[in-house]
Amino acid sequence: MSSVLCQHGVVGIGAASIRTLRAALGQDLGEDVGATRVQEMGFAAGAEVYQSFCAWLPSHADLRDPADLSADALPEVLSAFFGALGWGTVSTERVGERGLVVASPDWAESAPGTSGEGPACVFSTGLLASFFTSLAHGSALAAMEIECRAQGDARCRFLIGSPATLAAVYDAASRGADYRTALGA
Ligand SMILES: [Zn+2]
C-alpha cells in the first residue's frame, strides 16, 4: 500500500473489527439501530477516504483534480484505489442513465455465508455513499447493497444513485419488478 493512502485520518484496521462492532451493536441496540450506527460510521469514514483519494490520485493518474477524471477512466482508478486500501477486487459499471454499480467478489466487510437475512455490508453502504457524494461535488448520492457474499451471493454489489433513484429502485424491488427499469436501463 502506498503511504499516501494513510492521510487525512485514514488508518488501517482489520475488517473483522467492523463485523465485530456490527454484531455487538446489533445485540445492544437491536439489529436495525445497530446497523444504522455502523452505517453512520462508514459515512464519516467515506469523507476521509475521499480526501485520501484526492491525495493519491496524482501519483496514479497524473491528475490533480478528480473532476478531471473521465467516465472511461473511472473504473480503473477506483479499482486501483480501493484495491490498494484492501477493500477488495473492485469493478464498477454504469446501469442505465442513473445508476452506478460497484461490485467485488472479495469485498472486505463481508464474511461469506454468515448472514441469511439480507445484505450485511452496512459500513460499506455508508462509506460508498459519502465517497461518491464527495466525488459528485456534494450532490447527495446514496448506496444500496443489492447482492452480498454474506447471504451467499458470489459478489457484493452496491448500487449508487440519488436518494430519489434508490427509493424508486427499492419500490420496484418490493413490488417484484426489475429494479433496472427505475434506473433508466
Ligand atoms: Zn456484502
Could you characterize the architecture of this molecule?
The model has no long low-confidence stretch (mean pLDDT 91). This protein has a four-stranded antiparallel β-sheet with strand order 1-2-4-3. 45% of the residues lie in helices and 12% in strands. Strand 1 (91-95) and strand 2 (99-104) form a beta hairpin. It is α+β, with helices and mostly antiparallel strands and 185 residues long. It is built from five helices and four strands; from the N terminus they run αααββαββα. The protein starts with 14 loop residues before the first helix and ends in an 11-residue tail after the last helix. The chain is globular. Bound molecules: zinc ion. Zinc ion (ZN) is lined by residues 107, 110, 119-121, 145, 148-150, 156.
- For the CA atoms, what is the radius of gyration? 16 Å
Bulk shape: globular
Strand order of the largest sheet: 1-2-4-3
Summarize the biggest pleated sheet.
4 strands, antiparallel
Separation of termini? 37 Å
Low-confidence stretches: none
Assign a percent range to the helix content: 40-55%
Bound molecules: zinc ion
Let me know the average pLDDT: 91
Strand-and-helix sequence, N→C?
HHHEEHEEH
Q: Could you say which structural class the secondary elements and strand pairing correspond to? A: alpha+beta
**β content, as a range?**
5-15%
Count of alpha/pi helices: 5
Q: What is the total tally of β strands?
A: 4
